[in-house]
Design goal:
mainly alpha
Length: 398
């Protein structure tokens, strides 16, 4: 479809106005402006394609620490696009973005470690990166993890060598993953037998996977009581994902009697093990006083731990917390992290801060840009509601 030049990309301004805004930001040395203009040079739609210019702009933005630019430049090097292959440099750039919690780079690093491409082949490290990417809301990582849970590492012919040195219960579970993906009923029964045998030894992950089999009716018949029983055993064995799941069940009153205090107990165990999703849920309970004594300091502590792992909503909520305390600089930092993962309410809040010059330099151009970005994701009524809420929360006058 041809671009609407008078409503370029739905931003409500013409293509030339958009280009003028980006060139102005680049002249000011703005990292995000450099990145966005680089995108246009790479695409070759709004302006003549020029990959050398795109790469130069990505480098300038990357050197200022802009995560999107680090990821994009790293991806180009990693994949060897337009002859610019430099796999080690690509991995290093993605690692810098990942250190900022950028979900796409966390996913890229996970894939690099799975493939042993530009990084050591390390499945556990790869899975850690993929989990962090999924916790940050990156759907491709969540799908990859779901596939690995159900089928083992996929495609098998590419990654099978990574399991050759595995031993013990985990090796047997990986064998079961592969069998469970088969269409052969006999292999599915064997998968169930292996998982149940491992689970009966008290192995946490085995108990969890067996619970999921009973929940989904995979390789066996669905059985809600068996699901709840094996999930509890997995949680008792210290498996973080199971503990977090138990917290969800108690919070919702599913399979168990609703109990907010029990939800907080199980989530706290998973949170202490570093599971970002549990950390965020626990923070919400401390914020509302559900099942625990209301404690804003504990809320901010757990939000921080989740945010540092790239959890998008935790980053945003942390920004709100700092803004309500009038620490606008810290608020802007965390909103920027959430914006990097396309979280539109954070775009609205950043627009307000730039318009007010609070925590960031006063900039109408940046305020306008973030408002336009938010408009790509949400209707005007939703954006205005967040605008009004944030202005009141942060004690601002805009």
């Amino acid at each position: 479809m041809k671009e609407d030049e008078e409503n370029f990309r739905g931003l409500g301004i013409s293509k030339q106005q958009y280009l003028g805004l980006l060139f102005t930001l680049c002249q000011q040395g703005d990292a995000e402006g450099q990145y966005l203009l680089g995108e246009l040079f790479e695409e070759g739609k709004a302006i003549e394609r020029d990959m050398e210019e795109a790469l130069a702009l990505y480098r300038l933005s990357s050197e200022q620490g802009f995560a999107k630019a680090q990821h994009r430049l790293g991806f180009i090097y990693f994949m060897g696009r337009v002859g610019a292959q430099n796999v080690p440099e690509g991995v290093q750039l993605m690692r810098r973005a990942a250190e900022q919690g950028f979900a796409m780079s966390l996913f890229g690093l996970g894939m690099a470690h799975l493939a042993g491409r530009g990084a050591e082949r390390n499945v556990e490290l790869a899975l850690d990166y993929l989990r962090r990417a999924a916790a940050g809301g990156y759907e491709a990582a969540a799908k990859m993890l779901a596939g690995i849970d159900q089928e083992g590492v996929h495609p098998q012919e590419v990654y099978a060598a990574m399991f050759e040195d595995a031993d013990g219960p985990d090796a047997r579970l990986k064998q079961a993953y592969r069998l469970s993906a088969s269409a052969d009923a006999g292999e599915q029964r064997e998968a169930f037998r292996i998982v149940r045998e491992v689970a009966e030894t008290g192995h946490g992950k085995g108990c969890f996977l067996l619970a999921c089999m009973y929940r989904d009716g995979r390789c066996t018949e669905r059985n809600e009581r068996e699901f709840a029983d094996w999930l509890y055993r997995a949680a008792e064995a210290g498996f973080a994902e199971a503990q977090d799941y138990m917290g969800d069940l108690y919070a919702a009153g599913e399979c168990v009697e609703q109990d907010a205090a029990a939800a907080a107990y199980w989530r706290s165990l998973a949170a202490e093990q570093g599971l970002a999703r549990a950390q965020f849920s626990l923070a919400q309970q401390y914020g509302s006083g559900s099942g625990v004594a209301k404690d804003p300091q504990q809320m901010m502590l757990w939000l921080l731990r989740a945010a540092e792992q790239g959890h998008t909503e935790a980053q945003f909520r942390l920004g709100l917390g700092y803004a309500s305390g009038e620490d606008y600089r810290k608020a802007a930092e965390w909103f920027s992290e959430a914006v990097a993962q396309q979280y539109w309410p954070a775009m609205v809040c950043l627009a307000v801060l730039y318009a007010a010059g609070k925590g960031v330099p006063l900039s109408r151009e940046k305020a306008e840009l973030y408002n336009r970005m938010a408009a790509e994701h949400a209707a005007e009524e939703e954006r205005l509601a967040w605008f009004d809420y944030f202005v009141a929360l942060a004690h601002l006058s805009v």
